[in-house]
Amino acid sequence: MFRRGLRQVIEAEPGLTIVAEAEDGVAALEQIRRLKPKVAVLDIDMPKLDGFAVVKALQQESLPTGIVILTMHKDEDLFNEAMNRNVQAFILKDSAVQDIAGSIRAVAAGQYFISPAISVYLLNRNRRASAVARQNPGLAALTPTERRVLQLIADYQTNKEIAAALFVSPRTVENHRANICQKLTLHGSHALLRFALENRSTLD
């Protein structure tokens, strides 16, 4: 019922066209692979594959579809998880009727969209990022690729998985890890993983 109502709202918007619907994450992923839509609206709580699992698969396959995450949960940890995965829009079901069209248009234009009710989460995230940057000045010296490696480490990705995601060799990933440790003055076999996990929500 909710999906049908949301469809009616989207179809009433000029310039927006729905190309497919899916009842679960597996079907959604198959439809996105086949149709390659400009934007996909994914519920976090889809059966078979949740929204984040679909996002991970899309990113691993380098599919260009922009993502709107839709959820009933007003939860800061879920919001940060979405941001860590470079999701462009995060909206609440409570305000979906008001926010869905704006979020789709924003993502299609390469912009970001967050439901106003959770804008404080973004402020909190920015404050934490600023604090981490002050405490770890070496972060500013990291290249975009090194920051991406750090994000993937925080997502428990192995060197082989990171290499596949970045289209480089595992040896190149090892070099990136060594450079990150040097810039952040991290020592010990688990120091890099610990840093990545502790600062996961600030590694944009």
Task: List strands and helices in order, with pairings.
Elements: H1 2-11, H2 25-35, E1 39-43, H3 51-60, E2 66-71, H4 76-84, E3 89-92, H5 96-108, E4 113-114, H6 119-135, H7 144-154, H8 159-166, H9 170-183, H10 191-198
Parallel strand pairs: 1-2, 2-3, 3-4
Q: Could you characterize the architecture of this molecule?
A:
- The chain folds into 2 domains: about 1-120, 3-Layer(aba) Sandwich (Rossmann fold), CATH 3.40.50.2300; about 135-200, Winged helix-like DNA-binding domain superfamily/Winged helix DNA-binding domain (Arc Repressor Mutant, subunit A, Orthogonal Bundle), CATH 1.10.10.10.
- Helix content is about 55%, strand content about 10%.
- It is built from 10 helices and 4 strands.
- Strands 1-2-3-4 form a 4-stranded parallel sheet.
- Helix 4 links the parallel strand 2 and strand 3.
- The two termini are about 35 Å apart.
Q: Give the amount of beta strand, in percent.
A: 5-15%
CATH topology of the largest domain: Rossmann fold
Q: What is the total domain count?
A: 2
Number of strands: 4
Radius of gyration: 18 Å
Label the overall shape. globular
Low-pLDDT residue spans: none
CATH architecture of the largest domain: 3-Layer(aba) Sandwich
CATH superfamily of the largest domain: Response regulator
Task: Give the biggest beta sheet.
Answer: 4 strands, parallel
**Ends distance:** 36 Å
As a percent range, the share of helical residues equals 40-55%
* Global mean pLDDT: 88
Strand order of the largest sheet: 1-2-3-4
Structural class: alpha/beta
Number of helices: 10
Provide the succession of SSEs.
HHEHEHEHEHHHHH
CATH class of the largest domain: Alpha Beta
